Amino acid sequence: MAIKIMICDDEMDILDVTGMILEDAGYEVIAVSDSLKAEEVFKNEMPDLLLIDLWMPGISGDKIIASLKTNNDFENVPMIVLSASDTARQIAMGCGAVDFIAKPYDIDNLLGVLNNHLHN
Fold first, then answer.
1. The CATH number fitting domain 4-118, selected from 2.40.50.140, 3.40.50.2300, 1.10.3720.10, 3.10.310.10
2. pTM beyond cutoff 0.90
3. Any idea where the Response regulatory domain is (predicted)?
């Protein structure tokens, strides 16, 4: 069974490209562009890792992470923020994210960070 990664980003280009990269690397990808549906999709799909943008219309990624982390079923699921904002790193670490990847990202770095958190 493939490792399941959920990507949540309101930028369709980022969602599509990141999804293709992860699928090519052998991951099963769940792509969500609507932050208002992200928590529900996460709970239904139970991914092995969440990769989420911080600044989205509706609900911000830090609020989604903080909410999911209150559920004991999800406390061990790595949640990683993917953002273009320099100030996002501190916010990401403060909400319970395990790591931060800056956009635009290097593909090898992205895969390395994910691999580190999935196989540690």
1. 3.40.50.2300
2. yes
3. 4-118
